Amino acid sequence: MNETFHLDAVPIRLKGCGKTYDGGVCALEPLDLAIAGGETLVFLGPSGCGKTTTLRIIAGLESPDPGGRVYFGEDDVTDLPIERRNVGMVFQSYALFPNMTVIDNVAYGLRVRGVARAQRIARADEMLAMMHIADLAGRRIDQLSGGQRQRVALARALVVRPRVLLLDEPLTALDAKLRDTLRLEIDRLLRELGITAIYVTHDQAEAMALGDRIVVMSKGRVAQVGTPREIYHRPANSFVADFVGIMNRLPAEARDGMLAIGRELLPWSGPEGHVEVLVRPEDVIMGTGDGHLDARVAAAVFLGDRTRVLAETADGRSVTVDTPGRTDLVRGAAVSLSFDPARLLTLPR
Amino acid sequence: MAKRGISFWAQLAFTLLVCALLVVPVVLSMLAGVTVNYFVGIKSGLTLRWVEEVWRLYAETIWLSMRIAFACLACTLLLGVPAAYVLARRTGAVARAIEELLVMPVAVPGLATSLALIVTYGGFGDFRRSWVFILVGHVLFTLPFMVRSVLAVLHSIDFATLEEGAASLGAGFLQRFFHVVLPNCLSGILAGSLMVLTLSMGEFNLTWLLHTPLTKTLPVGLADSYASMRLEIGSAYTLVFFLMIIPSLIVLQILANRKRA
Amino acid sequence: MSLPPPNASALADSQFRPLQRQGTGWGWGQLTLGRDPLVLTAMMAPAAVVFGAFFLLPMLRLFLIGGSGAEGWGAYASIITNPRHLESLVSTVLLSAGVTLVTLVVSTVAGLFLVRNRFPGRSLLNAMLTFPLAFPGVVIGFMVIMLAGRQGLIGDLTFKLAGSKLVFAYSMAGLFLGYVYFSIPRVILTIMASAEKLDPRLEEAARSLGARPWQVVGHVILPALKPAFLSAGAVCFATAMGAFGTAFTLATRIDVLPMTIYTEFTLAANIAMAAALSFVLGAVTWAALAVARSFAGTSVAAAG
């Protein structure tokens, strides 16, 4: 791989960018965001949450409502359409031109910039080699598999040395195994290139794997911004807690620095009074002996690397527990759940 | 379920009968055009004499029809392709209305359209007498076919995302249109072109009222020959007409099959 | 692998900084993605101008002239008030309705057969049935003469079989045959296209519930094709109403509305009456096609 192919790390700033469509539909509430140069930022959320709208505003395909501004480094690009922002964009459907071969697709950005044919073909070849698809140069788009198209789309976006790389759910159209492989490749590529990258997805595994920081969105608003660990272990609100992974919720009583849960009292440094305690399935310790809370197995699903157990407590509450793969638990078996107070969360009021 | 029961054979027979109804007259008339004497039948021998007669009498009409057809093609390409793009881009009520309007010259009988043209522009002598008068009618009639053909292709490809892709690479509007949009519409443009050529060559309803003795097209000549010439000449003339449009009909058929496959 | 620091020299690499380069090759300035209403209007303008000048305007004039003749605006009612015109209208409507019915039946039987069965030669039959699509009315009139005229094939056959020649080209029957001739390709194409899109699972469900083949056809397939029937039928009706070339070639005693209009214009030189009648005819065919489009979305050509 060409060690010197390196791209600018341009910081991006959004100030008060909102988007309302004709008819009063508010797709995005005004948003302030600072993205560091070279960072990979992932927008995560369900459909309709505004993540794609934000991406398109950064790209220049949509303009923000009056008052919103977009900065690439020191340049205010708000009034520039996408053709003049020098971005690299990978679309969900790849948007590869069916009337051109792979090499012509990749070289298109250079062609539009007036680069001579010999030179742009050479640069495109280099880029294809870097993506390990040099042998596809003369193929037509309909002859390519999903993974190959994705790589061509990336090559095309990168060959023009964009200031920022924008990826709109690039892996959604692929099957699971391919997605895993390509995710790793994209991750490695983004780090090697050092480019600022904005990635949109609804798949939280992707978000966690790729993002330096994640912006979780819901209904046009930002729910939380943080690193993957922060999002996962310290969700800021109910939505984030439930959207990213599974979260168990248990009612408990806290008083005088102790938390009463089940029949046990645990040392507690959190809020007092009636609290709703949140705990991740993998943080629940399940055994057969004396634990904090008794329960019965209602269902046990073997998922390969782990078993997901749905346990029901005496007062009818469901607790999802993930235990490592090899267990033989049957419906109706009695189990005992224990908790590490360090792994218990509460949501801010 | 490949049981070939009686119903299969009955339907097959029926379908063959219908095909015969459609094809036999075509074959007959083509044959009559090269028969020495149709009344006697094929026993009288084959000849190209009638075809030569046709050429002697009606060569002008053939040239004029071709000239008009290709001019019509040029006009519909220039007018119709951009119009189709606009209609694919904007899908609101206005676009719906424009599509409805464009189809009107096809919905309304050619008689009405040509009458309207005559009462409005009949006074402009030079225009009225030139072949451009006929061309106008043909363009009105064939434009919706070109537009519809290109529009169909545009609807089937996600050209909006392709344009966004090209724009993200820095392409301006004209570059996007000529590098990305048009090349991907070629199948629609081709099908539309063949349709326009074929329809223009065969157009009669409009042309009959719009023509003058000096601007006779092929179908006008055909009507003339059916009325006043012997059957063999009419047949030979029809034969010439078929030879001109059948190739493009075949290509259209192939294109349609390929799309369905 | 550690991340190397950002390459400072890349910032100075002006070869790839198009922001300094003005225009993108065509000198037109930067236009947003075709959302720019000016661009779109400019692209639509030529077609709009041609259409406005050569169709809308003339149609308006035709309408006005229709009311400017000896009978004034009464000319528009003459389709009902004048017995000859009324008769012409009625015979045209009956003819068109009859043609539509026969064509629908014939096309359904043949079309469904072709779509639902695979056998060698199928695509050939297919081609033969859709091929006369672009034949002009005049030529079809000629075909009718070849089949049913004085020297026609049918005449010869009946002469050999029954001793007398059956000649019907120049009557309503001949016209009927001609209209069916040019209607079959259009209608059959629409029906076949619709039949191909039918969900085979509906049929399978019916069969799994015990329905016999004719019941499947009658209860599942034909009802599912209803929109196609309505749309193709409306197109067929409209085309038959407005057809001129065929009637012109077969001429003599037939008095369909287009021919009436034609004689008013050329023989009686009654431009206003011709204008009014043709306007009414145009409105009827346009309305019929609008009905068709509402059932189908797109419509097949009306020509001939």
Q: How many runs of DSSP E, i.e. beta strands of chain B?
A: 2
Shape of chain B: globular
**Mean pLDDT across all amino acids of chain B:** 88
Number of domains of chain A: 2
Say which CATH homologous superfamily of the domain at 65-217 and 245-260 in chain B is assigned. MetI-like
Q: How much β-strand is present in the residues of chain A?
A: 25-35%
CATH class division of the largest domain in chain A: Alpha Beta
Structure description:
- The complex is a heterotrimer of chains A (349), B (261) and C (304).
- Chain A has 2 domains: 232 residues, Rossmann fold (3-Layer(aba) Sandwich), CATH 3.40.50.300; 96 residues, OB fold (Dihydrolipoamide Acetyltransferase, E2P).
- Chain A is 24% helix and 33% strand.
- Chain A has 8 helices and 19 strands.
- In chain A, helix 2 crosses helix 3 and helix 2 runs parallel beside helix 4.
- Chain A is elongated and about 75 Å long.
- The mean pLDDT of chain A is 90.
- Chain B has a domain of 169 residues: Orthogonal Bundle (MetI-like fold).
- The longest helix of chain B has 41 residues.
- Chain B has 261 residues and is mainly alpha-helical.
- The longest helix of chain C is centred in the first third of the chain and has 34 residues.
- Chain C is built from 14 helices and no strands.
- Chain C is globular.
- With 304 residues, chain C is mainly α.
- In chain C, 68% of the residues lie in helices and 0% in strands.
- At the B-C interface, helix 1, helix 2, helix 3, helix 4 and helix 6 of B face helix 2, helix 4, helix 5, helix 6 and helix 8 of C.
Q: Strands, helices and their partners?
A:
The complex is a heterotrimer of chains A (349), B (261) and C (304).
Chain A: E1 12-20, E2 26-35, E3 40-44, H1 51-59, E4 69-72, E5 75-76, E6 87-90, H2 102-112, H3 117-130, H4 146-158, E7 164-168, H5 176-193, E8 196-201, H6 204-210, E9 213-218, E10 221-226, H7 228-233, H8 238-243, E11 248-255, E12 258-261, E13 264-267, E14 273-279, E15 284-287, E16 293-302, E17 306-313, E18 318-324, E19 334-339
Parallel strand pairs in A: 3-8, 3-9, 6-7, 7-8
Antiparallel strand pairs in A: 1-2, 1-4, 4-5, 9-10, 11-12, 11-14, 12-13, 15-19, 16-17, 16-19, 17-18
Helix pairs in contact in A: 2-3, 2-4
Chain B: H1 6-32, E1 35-37, E2 41-46, H2 49-89, H3 93-107, H4 110-121, H5 125-129, H6 131-156, H7 159-168, H8 173-202, H9 205-210, H10 218-228, H11 231-260
Helix pairs in contact in B: 1-11, 2-6, 2-8, 2-10, 2-11, 3-6, 6-8, 7-8, 8-11, 10-11
Chain C: H1 8-11, H2 37-66, H3 78-81, H4 83-116, H5 122-130, H6 137-148, H7 153-162, H8 172-196, H9 200-208, H10 213-224, H11 226-242, H12 245-250, H13 257-266, H14 271-296
